[in-house]
Fold this protein.
Amino acid sequence: MSMTKIYWAGDSTVQNNNILTYPCTGIGQVFSLYLKDGYQVENHAVNGRSTKSFLDESRLAPISERIKEGDFFFIQFGHNDEKAEDPSRYTEPFTTYIENLEKYVNAARNKNAYPVLITPLERRCFDQNGTLGAGAHTDYVCAMKHLAVQIEVPLVDLWQMSRDAMEKAGSERSKKWYMHLPAGIYTNYPTGLEDNSHLRYDGAVLYAGCIAKGLHAIGGIYSEMLLASSLKELL
């Protein structure tokens, strides 16, 4: 059976993990749970990459070469583009960031494939009073949305959906989605961990479901890839 590929470019919130980083889990690692037969994720996301460093390391090139007509290209960056202290990764949201994003979009369009922009996942950013803060992605989210309208690319607003999910769950309940690990349970993290950026399995599945929900809302070919049974759980 011919497979439709979903290529994915992104950072550590998306990447595939192995036993060395267990229980860390990327969204792209579990997204296939929501897919019908005939669709396959090819996940090129890598820890620590921004739109700039991903390009500079020639990581877009194999996607550009392999992607074919009718495939999809999910483009999800922001966490590392905002790191002004690191010139190898930093981009300005309304200039270099969107200029880079357009290169990814064109890599799909040049092959008659379908690009999808996905806003960056929100960090777990509760204050001492248990209120979800403003986070760090706002300008990058606005810039990506602006670009999506300007060049007519479908967009899934994972940033907003992840914020909604965290506000509903609250500070304590949302910890189980992120790498908040008690000491002594995981051999990779003997002293425990309090990480508000990277996901455990439950968080990856939750946010992959948010993306599926966003694709369903776009409709058409973007919804057709999804299992009907998974949509009942999401809607």
